[in-house]
Design goal:
Length: about 525
């Protein structure tokens, strides 16, 4: 059985002519007919070429790979118990799931405090991020969770002001930071500013620290969707020329007269903006961490992707040696913007394998007495059961789970419902719950009471969507933890999950389900 789906996908707006009869290895129709207009990816590439490398339509979608990996988090089950309680009194009136503590702290001293053990690891300059930022920022702030402003936001901002190649004023970054900070409650959560090669050259993080009061910054080595720099589509010649002037790679060259004429007559409708790849070295990494500390950063994070194992080892060792507060490791397969489609499907280490390696390396360093950063795992997480498994697989070193596509989906749905309410065009599926925000969003009453009528009325519907989704995740995770008799998220352990297959057990080091509690069972039976 082929693990990959080739030559046709909703992501590239392509399909096979003979959908029921497709060659597994190539993805081609069993009979490729002379005269076909070219509905498949090969055919579309014959007339649109490099455009078909990327998921479409750009700006209104998030994407994730379709490859079926041999092992994923569904190959593990949560292990509950009927005995005892950890982190709370063994009292049925006290050991109830609403009493489960989901709070997490990261960093030295008092550290950053997060109400829930998840974070959005990095949403940058794509249209899908910009168009939904209100919902993402306000919803995250109200929930007390972390949100990372991803790469290239300043470079893409036409209103950003540069002097001598460094940013001195922005519109978009300032807006993104303030939207979060204005709704932050009781010191929970954090807004984090990420930087790639281009951002570092522009001095984005120094600007965010000194001018916007940002305390946490993140270095970026990559993500699970691609092992190259970030890319977006640009449908404006003027903006493409601006980005070219700022030093970005823009294809085709927007200053070439031939290209300009081709664009103006409609031969193509979008330019591609690409970022450069970083060149990681221990000396330069140590220097950059020190620069950020001197610039006033209270917390320095690192985000890395699904690179080969040696790069993962470098990430955790460098983070340990140079005092990085948090390391996020993103498994292959997902993306929020415009990652090349075949790359998204075919490169890198899948989540379970990558997270298992991360645990192995972390344990080795911990056993040697080395300091470890807080670890975050990412790669396709959407619901509380997967979160539980990810936290358990990496316990006690993994403190949080990172996810982006799912929160964006929740914010988009909330926004769409809000628009439908305003237009009086609610679909029956939603209208059965009511016709107003207070009736439709199940968290509205509690939020209105907490915030007051005036502030509640200012909330965008996208924020209500994200907040309500997060509330569901929190309750679901508390139920799973209570079922495992763990009443604080930091008490979760690798023994709280079991592998369903020999392959999952071999990769992760988690016990197979038939081997769980073997010694305890022997003692219980012997005592009979």
């Amino acid at each position: 059985m082929s693990l990959s789906k080739v030559n046709s996908s909703a992501a590239t707006l392509t399909k096979n002519r003979t959908e029921g009869s497709v060659v597994p290895a190539s993805g081609m129709c069993v009979t490729c007919v002379d005269g076909c207009i070219g509905m498949c990816e090969i055919g579309k590439s014959a007339f649109r070429g490099h455009e078909v490398i990327y998921p479409q339509p750009f700006g209104v979608i998030t994407t994730a790979g379709e490859k079926i990996y041999p092992v994923d988090y569904s190959h593990f089950n949560v292990m509950g118990t009927a005995v005892g309680a950890h982190g709370i009194a063994e009292d049925s009136d006290k050991a109830i799931f609403p009493a489960v503590n989901l709070e997490v702290r990261v960093g030295g001293g008092d550290g950053l405090k997060f109400r829930y053990p998840w974070i959005i690891p990095g949403i940058g300059s794509t249209n899908i991020a910009k168009n939904n930022w209100e919902g993402l920022a306000i919803g995250s702030a109200l929930s007390g969770t972390g949100l990372t402003i991803g790469e290239n936001v300043v470079g893409m901002d036409p209103e950003a002001v540069m002097q001598d190649g460094r940013v001195v004023e922005t519109a978009d970054l300032k807006r993104r930071v303030s939207l979060y900070k204005d709704f932050q409650r009781n010191g929970y959560g954090a807004i984090i500013v990420q930087a790639n090669v281009e951002d570092t050259r522009l001095g984005v993080q120094e600007y965010a620290i000194s001018k916007l009061g940002v305390e946490a910054v993140e270095l970026k080595w990559g993500q699970g969707a691609k092992d190259i720099g970030g890319e977006v589509k640009i449908n404006s010649l003027k903006k493409a020329q601006m980005l070219y002037a700022r030093g970005y790679i823009v294809l085709p060259n927007p200053t070439d007269p031939v290209v300009i004429r081709a664009f103006e007559r409609g031969a193509f409708k979008e330019f591609e903006r690409h970022s450069r790849v970083g060149m990681v070295g221990e000396e330069s990494f140590a220097r950059r961490v020190e620069e950020l500390r001197k610039a006033g950063a209270k917390y320095v994070f690192l985000k890395t992707g699904a690179y080969r194992p040696a790069d993962l080892a470098r990430a955790i060792v460098f983070s340990s040696k140079y005092g990085v507060d948090m390391l996020t490791v993103d498994g292959a397969g997902g993306g929020t913007g415009m990652s090349p489609w075949r790359m998204m499907n075919e490169w890198g280490i899948p989540p379970v394998e990558l997270h298992s390696l991360l645990y192995t390396y972390a344990k080795r360093l911990a056993d040697a007495g080395k300091r470890l950063p807080a670890l975050v795992v990412a790669g396709g997480f959407t619901f509380e059961d997967q979160m539980f498994k990810g936290l358990a697989l990496g316990a006690p070193f993994v403190k949080m789970v990172g996810m982006a596509r799912a929160p964006i989906a929740a914010a988009m749905v909330g926004k769409t419902i809000g628009r439908a309410i305003d237009e009086g065009q609610l679909p029956v599926y939603v209208e059965r719950f009511g016709s107003s925000r207070d009736e439709i969003f199940v968290t509205a009453a509690a939020l209105r009471r907490e915030l007051g009528d005036n502030m509640f009325e200012t909330l965008p519907a996208g924020a209500l969507g994200l907040y309500t989704y997060y509330e569901r995740l929190a309750q679901g995770l508390r139920q799973l933890l209570a079922g495992s008799r763990k009443f604080s998220v930091d008490l979760i352990s690798r023994n709280d999950i079991a592998a369903l297959t020999a392959e999952a057990a071999g990769i992760s080091g988690i016990q197979r389900i038939m081997d769980v509690d073997r010694n305890d069972v022997e003692q219980i039976l012997a005592g009979a």
